[in-house]
Specification:
single chain; alpha/beta; Rossmann fold; eight-stranded parallel β-sheet; 44% helix; binds NADP nicotinamide-adenine-dinucleotide phosphate
Length: 283
Amino acid sequence: MAEFEGTLVQEELQAGTGERGAAKCPVVLITGAATGIGAATARKFAQEGYALILGDINVEALAATVESLKGPNGAQLPLEQVLAVRCDVTDKESIKAMVAAGIDQFGHIDYLFANAGIHRNNTILTISDEELELVVHTNVFGAVYTVQAVLPHMLEQGQGSILFNCSDQWFIGKKNQFAYGMTKGAIGQITRSLAAEFAQQNIRINAICPGTIDTPIAQRALSNYAQRAGITLEEAYQEERELFLSKRLGTPEEVAEMAFFILVKATFSTGSHFGIDGGLCAS
Ligand code: NAP
């Protein structure tokens, strides 16, 4: 712990120094990087030798994620290779500040994982206006604001790759998840329209579409379901596992491997929706 004394996560971003940093390695920006899929993807990119710009509203968990980062040699990732920032994707200014600080520190942003998202259980008849607003604002506007802040830098650089964290609900509908499914449908469509718009400028835009992955989002959803159904949490998990051909939930690390592949290696893919769902959508 000693080497991490001081502030790991910057709450108050300073205005730019005007002097641009110049990371020699490629740079990835990940929103919602504190836990779950975002944190696992941050760890994957760190292992592969990338510089990281990480944003989340959960600063305690984000600091723990920064501590967990290891470089290609297995040693703690040097702190100068990470910018971890309190960033609320529903707040345009917060995203702009993170991106400006990232450009200041590293000089460029090569990859964007627009990952931050929330889940709520509701139907079109039960959802409150406030909940509808919150889910749409976070999952759709948050992703849009993030791309609006990062894309101009990629265009200036002449290359970039963007990945949205979509959902199996791009392919299928699920009960009692009205707003969440609606927002992931929107993200799936945004993927296509942006891909068409920016392919000629050497920007690839794709979506990853996970089934149920064992992260805090899924744990909360299953816990809510167990309460409503009057069953134990373990019984809720067992029901969920049965939905998948693989008879298990996915892990954040499995999604991180695929996110890395799509962002960095899948150079002939754009406007695509990549399933990672243990066969759910095939059955
Ligand atoms: P997670 O562990 O809850 O990660 C989401 C992170 O985003 C959390 O740290 C959360 O903070 C943060 N966040 C929430 N609102 C934010 C905001 N306004 N600005 C910035 N950060 C915010 O869940 P996850 O499963 O890894 O989810 C990541 C993405 O994967 C989401 O877009 C989700 O829809 C998608 N996904 C997940 C699954 C699954 O089954 N897990 C399946 C398909 C798609 P708090 O902890 O404070 O909320």
